[in-house]
Write a structure and sequence with these properties.
alpha+beta, Rossmann fold, six-stranded antiparallel beta sheet, five-stranded parallel beta sheet, 18 helices, 13% strand
Length: 898
C-alpha cells in the first residue's frame, strides 16, 4: 500500500489541512508541538479504527478549542493492488465511514459504508478488526512493522510472523498453507487434550481418566477380597440373631394382651372422644367463618384505600402532565424566537463578512499601489546610479601598480640620485670624440649620449644630462666608476619597466594616474553602496515583481463592489483601521451568533428532556388509570361475592356469638375427657407405645436377619469370586485401553514436533533473507564494525558480533541506544523490502535517529534511499530536523505552511 494524500478536519491542532505524498519519499518537518505526530495518529485511526468507536483515545482528537458537538474527519487516498481508493472516516459527533474506488480524477464508486466499510477496509489491509475500543499497533498486521509512532519505536514484540510477513506467499519450496495451519491446529488441539504446556499428563485427559478408572477397579478388587473374608463373620452374627427372635415375640404377645384389657375398661372413652372431636370441628368451622368475614372486610378496606390512593396519584400525574406540557409549549416558543434571532444574526454576520472582505480588498489595492509607486521610484533612482557607474567605468583604467609599488619606485629614484652623487666622487669613463662640423660625440662607459644631453668644455670634465637623473658634472677619473655602473643601470631598468607598463613618461605622471584611478574607484564604490541601500535585487527581478503587482492591481480593479460595501466602506479613510474595525465587528457578530447557537442547544436539550418527561408522565398516567379501573372492578367483584362491608360486620358479630357457645360446650366435654383419660386411657397409650416399639424392634431384627442372609448369599464364595473375576477382567481391559491411548498421545506429540520443525524451517526461509539484509545494512551504517547478527523466530535481535571476532558475543540489550536504534531501522527496512515483493509498501518513521551520531544518521538516510531505489518502497519521515533529511529526492513539507 502507498499513500497518495491525507486531509484532516478538526483534528487536534489541525483545523483543516491536506498533505499530498510523494511516490518515493516525503519529509514532513516543523518544530515540536506543531502536529507532526498527529498526522501519523490520524492515518492509523482512519485506517484501523471503527468510526463508531467511543473510546477515550478517539474522543481526544477533537480540538480543545471546539465548542459544542464537533466532528473530526480524515480523508485518505491510497493505492493498493494497482487500484486507487478513498476512505472518508468521521469520528465523534457525526460518526461514519465511506470507502470509494477511484477512477481517474473525478469518477468514483461507493464500495461500502459505516461498519461494512470498516470491515472491508481492515480485510483489504490484512489487519484485525478492533472492538469498540481503540485499535492497538499489534493488530495492524504488517503496518506494525512499517509504521513507527514515537511511543512504539521498539520492534514488534507481539503478533504472528506468519500473518504479518505472509509466510504462505513466498517462503520457497515449503509453504505454510491454510491446510497446513488447519492440520497444525488440529494436532495442537489433540496435544492439549492429553498434555499440559510443559508436556505433563493433563488432568481430565483420556490417559488421566483411564488411569483413575483403573486405580478405582484395583481398589474395588481389594474390597471384594475383604468381603470374601468377612462372610464367616456374617454367618456367626446370623446364628446369634436367630436365637434372640423367639424371646422378642413372647414379650410382644404379653404387651398386646395387657392392651386389650385396658381398652375394655375405657370403652366409654371412645364415644366421648368422638364428641370432643365433633365439638372441635364445629369450633373450627365457626372460626373459619369469622376468619373469612374478617378477610373480606380487610379486602374491602384495602381495595377502598388503594382506590383512594390511585385517584390521588392520578390527579397528581394529570396536574404534572399539564405543567410539563405548558413548559414544553413555552420552550417551543423560545426555540422559535432563538431560531429567528440566529437567522437575523446570520444575515448580519454575512453582511460583516462581505464588508470585511471588501475592506481587505480596498486595503490590499491601496497597499499594492503603494508598492508599485515604491518600486518605480527605486527603479528610477537605480537608473540614475547606473548612468553614473557607466560614466565612471568608461574613465576607469587598469592599475598595474599599487601604493607599495609607487613607494618602491620613489625609493629607487632616491637610490639613483645617491649613486649619481657618488659618481661625482668616483668619476665616469668618458670618451669625447670629435664629430662632424666641429661637434663632439660623448661616450660614457662606451655608450654615446644623444644630442642635447651633454655639453663639453674639454676632456677633463664633462657635464652630462639624462632623463630623470638631471645634470651631472663628471670628472674624467674613469677607474673609480666601475662598481657603481651596474647598480645605476639596474635601477634605471626597473624604473623604465614600471613607466612603460603604465604608458607614462615619468614617475610624477604615474603617481597622478594612480591618484585619479583611486578616486574613480572610490566614487564607483559609493555608487554601488547607494544602489545596495535602495534595493539589493536585480532590476529584472524588481521588474517582474512590478508586473505581478500590476496584474494583481488589475485583478482587484475588476472586483465589483456591492451596494452595501459602497455605502458602508468609505475609500477616503485609514483602510487599515477600517479592516480592523470590520474584523472586530465580524468577531463580535460571530461571538453573538455562537452564544445564540449555544443557547439554542441548551434550549433544545431542555425541550427534549421535558418532552421525554412528558412522555414518561403520560405513560405513568395511563398505567395509573388502567390500575384504577382494575381496582374498581376488583372492588365491585368483592362486593358481589361477599356483600358490603356492613353485611360482613353483622355476619362477623353473629359468628363470634356462635363461637362462644361452641367453646362452652367443648369445655364441658373436655372436663369429662380428662377424668377418663387419667385412668385406663394413660395405660392404653403407654401399652400402645410399648407395642409399637416392640414391633419395630422385631421388624428391625428380622430385617437384620434378612440383610445378613442377603449379604451371605451375595457374598458367598462363588459369588464373590465371580465379582472378583469380573473386576480383574475390567482391569485388564482398561490397561489395554490405557496402552492404546498412550500410544495415540505419543503419536500426536511426535507429529506435532515434526510439524513445528517444518514450520520453523518455513519461517526460516523468510527470516533468513531478512537477516542477511539486516547484516548488510548494519555493516554499512556502522562502517563494517559489525558483520554478523542473530535473530529469533520473531525477528527480534538477540546477539551480534564485531568484525574479526569469532563468536556472537555482544547481547543487543548491552549495546548503546544508538546501536539498538540503527538495528531496529535495519530490521524494518529489511521487512519492508521483503513485503514489497507482494506490492508497494509505505514505511513511516516518526522522529527517527534520536540516539545515533550525525555520520551514522547520514548513512542511514543513504541506506533508505538505496532501498527505495531497489524496491517499491515509499518512505514518510516526520521530524523537527529537516536539514538532516534534505538529501531525499522526494518532497519536503513544512507542516506550518500547509
Amino acid at each position: 500500500m502507498k499513500l497518495v494524500s491525507v486531509e484532516l478536519e478538526n483534528w487536534r491542532k489541525h483545523d483543516r489541512k491536506k498533505i499530498e505524498f510523494d511516490d518515493r519519499s516525503t519529509v514532513i518537518y516543523g518544530p515540536n508541538e506543531t502536529g507532526k505526530s498527529t498526522i501519523l495518529e490520524a492515518l492509523s485511526r482512519g485506517l484501523f479504527d471503527r468510526s463508531s468507536s467511543r473510546a477515550e483515545e478517539i474522543k481526544r482528537v477533537t480540538p480543545l478549542t471546539a465548542l459544542g458537538s464537533v466532528s473530526s474527519t480524515i480523508k485518505i487516498v491510497f493505492d493498493l493492488n494497482e487500484e486507487r481508493y478513498l476512505v472518508e472516516k468521521t469520528f465523534n459527533h457525526n460518526r461514519g465511514t465511506k470507502l470509494y474506488k477511484l477512477y481517474g480524477s473525478k469518477k468514483r464508486d461507493l464500495l461500502a459504508q459505516d461498519d461494512a466499510a470498516d470491515r472491508l477496509l481492515i480485510e483489504m489491509l490484512e489487519a484485525d478488526l478492533p472492538t469498540s475500543r481503540a485499535s492497538k499497533p499489534s493488530k495492524w498486521g504488517a503496518f506494525y512493522w512499517l509504521w513507527t509512532p514515537q511511543d512504539n519505536r521498539a520492534l514488534p514484540s507481539e503478533g504472528d510472523p506468519t500473518s504479518s510477513l505472509h509466510l504462505d506467499q513466498g517462503a520457497g519450496a515449503v509453504l505454510v498453507t491454510p491446510k497446513f495451519l488447519s492440520v497444525q491446529e488440529k494436532l495442537n488441539n489433540g496435544y492439549s487434550t492429553h498434555f499440559t504446556r510443559t508436556g505433563k499428563i493433563k488432568k481430565g485427559s483420556p490417559i488421566h481418566v483411564i488411569t483413575e478408572q483403573l486405580n478405582g477397579l484395583k481398589i474395588n478388587r481389594d474390597g471384594w477380597n475383604l468381603k470374601v473374608r468377612s462372610i464367616d463373620e456374617y454367618k456367626q452374627e446370623l446364628d446369634s440373631k436367630d436365637k434372640d427372635l423367639p424371646r422378642l415375640e413372647d414379650a410382644l404377645r404379653q404387651s398386646k394382651f395387657n392392651l386389650e384389657t385396658a381398652r375394655e375398661e375405657a370403652s366409654d372413652f371412645s364415644k366421648l372422644e368422638v364428641e370432643l372431636e365433633a365439638s372441635r370441628a364445629k369450633i373450627r368451622d365457626v372460626e373459619r367463618n369469622i376468619d373469612d368475614a374478617t378477610k373480606a372486610i380487610e379486602g374491602l378496606q384495602d381495595s377502598s384505600n388503594a382506590i383512594q390512593e390511585l385517584q390521588r396519584l392520578e390527579r397528581s400525574l394529570r396536574n404534572d402532565l399539564s405543567r410539563v406540557e405548558a413548559i414544553c409549549d413555552r420552550l417551543d416558543s423560545e426555540l422559535m424566537e432563538l431560531n429567528d434571532k440566529i437567522e437575523k444574526k446570520s444575515d448580519e454576520l454575512r453582511d460583516c463578512d462581505e464588508l470585511t472582505a471588501d475592506a481587505r480588498v480596498l486595503y490590499t489595492k491601496r497597499d499594492i499601489q503603494k508598492q508599485i509607486s515604491d518600486i518605480n521610484d527605486k527603479i528610477e533612482r537605480i537608473g540614475k546610479i547606473s548612468e553614473g557607474l557607466d560614466e565612471l567605468t568608461s574613465k576607469q583604467k587598469p592599475l598595474l601598480v599599487t601604493q607599495k609599488d609607487l613607494d618602491e619606485l620613489e625609493s629607487k629614484r632616491i637610490q639613483i640620485n645617491i649613486l649619481s652623487q657618488r659618481l661625482d666622487e668616483s668619476g665616469l669613463y668618458v670618451e669625447v670624440v670629435p664629430g662632424e662640423k666641429d661637434s663632439l660625440a660623448v661616450f660614457v662607459d662606451g655608450k654615446e649620449l644623444s644630442e642635447g644631453q651633454n655639453t663639453s668644455t674639454g676632456t677633463e670634465e664633462v657635464k652630462v644630462s639624462y632623463k630623470e637623473l638631471g645634470e651631472v658634472n663628471i670628472r674624467a677619473d674613469l677607474q673609480k666608476a666601475r662598481d657603481i655602473k651596474s647598480d645605476i643601470e639596474r635601477l634605471k631598468a626597473t624604473v623604465k619597466e614600471a613607466l612603460t607598463q603604465s604608458a607614462v613618461d615619468s614617475l610624477e605622471q604615474l603617481k597622478l594616474l594612480y591618484s585619479e584611478q583611486v578616486e574613480i574607484q572610490n566614487e564607483i564604490n559609493q555608487l554601488f553602496a547607494g544602489r545596495k541601500g535602495i534595493d539589493e535585487r536585480p532590476i529584472e527581478e524588481m521588474t517582474n515583481e512590478l508586473e505581478l503587482l500590476n496584474e494583481k492591481r488589475i485583478g482587484y480593479e475588476k472586483i465589483e463592489r456591492s451596494e452595501l460595501s459602497k455605502k458602508s466602506n468609505p475609500t477616503d479613510v485609514d483602510l487599515g483601521s477600517l479592516v480592523n474595525q470590520r474584523e472586530d465587528e465580524r468577531k463580535i457578530a460571530n461571538d453573538q451568533l455562537n452564544d445564540l447557537r449555544i443557547g439554542r442547544e441548551k434550549n433544545s436539550g431542555s425541550l427534549e428532556s421535558r418532552k421525554g418527561e412528558m412522555i414518561e408522565l403520560r405513560t405513568r398516567h395511563e398505567h395509573v388509570s388502567d390500575t384504577l379501573m382494575k381496582s374498581l372492578e376488583t372492588q365491585q367483584d368483592l362486593i358481589q361475592r361477599h356483600g358490603s362491608e356492613a353485611i360482613q360486620d353483622n355476619l362477623l358479630k353473629a359468628e363470634k356469638e356462635k363461637l362462644n357457645l361452641r367453646k362452652e360446650e367443648q369445655a364441658t366435654i373436655e372436663k369429662r375427657y380428662v377424668e377418663i383419660k387419667e385412668g385406663p386411657i394413660n395405660r392404653i397409650k403407654t401399652l400402645e407405645t410399648k407395642i409399637e416399639n416392640q414391633q419395630e424392634i422385631i421388624q428391625n431384627h428380622r430385617a437384620a436377619l434378612e440383610q445378613l442372609k442377603g449379604k451371605i448369599i451375595e457374598g458367598s464364595q462363588d459369588g464373590a469370586y465371580s465379582r472378583l473375576s469380573d473386576v480383574e477382567s475390567k482391569i485388564e481391559t482398561h490397561e489395554d485401553r490405557l496402552q492404546r491411548v498412550r500410544l495415540q498421545a505419543s503419536s500426536i506429540k511426535l507429529l506435532k514436533d515434526v510439524l513445528e520443525q517444518q514450520y520453523l524451517q518455513s519461517l526460516k526461509s523468510v527470516t533468513e533473507p531478512i537477516r542477511q539484509d539486516v547484516e548488510i545494512y548494519l555493516g554499512y551504517i556502522t562502517g563494517d564494525l559489525h558483520d554478523r547478527i542473530e535473530l529469533d523466530d520473531n525477528l527480534m535481535p538477540i546477539r551480534l558480533s564485531e568484525r574479526g571476532l569469532i563468536d556472537l558475543g555482544l547481547d543487543v540489550e548491552d549495546g548503546s541506544s544508538g546501536l539498538r536504534e540503527a538495528l531496529a531501522l535495519c530490521i524494518r527496512l529489511a521487512v519492508a523490502k521483503h513485503l514489497s515483493y507482494r506490492g508497494p509498501q509505505c514505511l513511516m518513521l516518526d522522529d527517527p535517529f534520536v540516539h545515533v551520531s550525525r555520520d551514522r544518521s547520514e548513512r542511514m538516510i543513504e541506506l533508505i534511499r538505496r532501498v527505495i531505489d531497489e524496491s517499491s518502497l515509499q518512505v514518510v519521515v516526520l521530524t523537527h530536523r529537516p536539514m538532516e533529511f534534505a538529501g531525499f529526492s522526494g518532497k519536503m513539507v513544512d507542516i506550518q505552511s500547509v
